Amino acid sequence: MSGPAKQRLIGDLRRAGILDERVLAVMAAVPRETFVPPTFAERAYDNMALPIGYGQTISQPLVVAAMTQALDVGERMKVLEIGTGSGYQAAILSRLCRRLYTVERFKMLSKEAERRLLDLRIHNVVFHVGDGTKGWTPQAPFDRIIVTAAAGEMPLALIDQLALGGVMLVPVGPDPVNQTVERIVKTEDGYTREEIMPVRFVPLVAGALPSFEG
Q1: Which of 55, 107, 117, 131 has the fewest CB atoms below 10 angstroms from its CB?
Q2: Residues of the chain with pLDDT under 50
């Protein structure tokens, strides 16, 4: 059932400006239906966000593809993801980088995502339950950082964990209606920032819920 729907989605992504063939190939290879609740399986290849529980969502494929394309990940890079969620973005990135470190504040989401990736035989992702606003200091610096929740203001602690010349993508905005993905490049003098696209993400919340069992 997913074959024609997936092909249609890849065509839609290409028409929307996703031209990086590596990104398109990975989007085609990763089974999105694995990352959505069974009740939404038939809509897995619709270009829309879907709920995954705990008040969180799996981002629409176009947003995932556009952010992945803008991140410009190389196969030898070390990448940090803030907001594991369903694990879908992690699965996409894992096929493009050397190693991915991913942080999630909900223990159950993290465990479920880890199980999904292991079922897909993805073994270059390291999971951590913690406060995403603090990044993952012991593993820094990172060549790339991607944040899949909206920060109210620029998360300087994460920029500190970028390698010189490294790139971070982060949605920034004061409310769900006014958010913009910004592309940050770490420089010797600080960082540069460029607006990429408007989005709607769940908020980036400080603190972890390591004992939360749903």
Answers
A1: 55
A2: 1, 210-214
* Residue 59 known to be catalytic: yes
Residue 210 lies in a domain: no
**Is the entire prediction scored with pTM above 0.70?**
yes
> DSSP letters of the chain?
-HHHHHHHHHHHHHHTT---HHHHHHHHHS-GGGGS-GGGGGGTTSSS-EEEETTEEEPPHHHHHHHHHHHT--TT-EEEEE--TTSHHHHHHHTTSSEEEEEESBHHHHHHHHHHHHHTT--SEEEEES-GGG--GGG--EEEEEE-SBBSS--HHHHTTEEEEEEEEEEEEEETTEEEEEEEEEETTEEEEEEEEEE--PBP-SS-BTT---
What range does the domain containing 60 cover?
Answer: 2-199
Catalytic residue, from 59, 86, 94, 110: name it. Answer: 59
Is 95 domain-assigned?
yes
Residue 212's pLDDT is what? Answer: 39
Report the CATH number that the domain containing residue 104 is assigned in CATH.
3.40.50.150
